[in-house]
Amino acid sequence: MSVRQRVPEQLVGPLGFISLAIGVVGLVVGYIITIVGITTYWNLNGLELANSEALIIVAVGVACLAVAYVGYRGFMTFAT
Question: What was the pLDDT predicted at 62?
Answer without folding.
Answer: 98
